[in-house]
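Troubleshooting log. The previous structure file for this entry was overwritten by mistake, so regenerating from the original sequence record. Sequence copied from the archived sheet and checked twice against the printout by T.R.
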Amino acid sequence: MKHNFQVGQKVRVLEVIVEYPSGDTPGGVCAEVGDIVIVRKLFSGELAYSIGVSHEGRSDGMTFVVAPKEIELVTEGDQ
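Regenerated output below.
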């Protein structure tokens, strides 16, 4: 899936992002509408959920994935 996001960009979450329980991961709400997150990883191929993001203060490398339609670019004046 094509998108124009780049690693390091700040983006705003447009939908509540929920991670469902899987294996040893308990799941839960990852982000609320309006949260500002950072694009950390871009996944290649035709994946619907092709962008790995995390909150700005997160430094452990953990991300959650979103679809391009679930985020929008934040401009300096929007923050």
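Strands lie at 10-13, 17-19, 28-31, 36-42, 51-55, 64-66, 71-73. Archived copy saved in two places this time.
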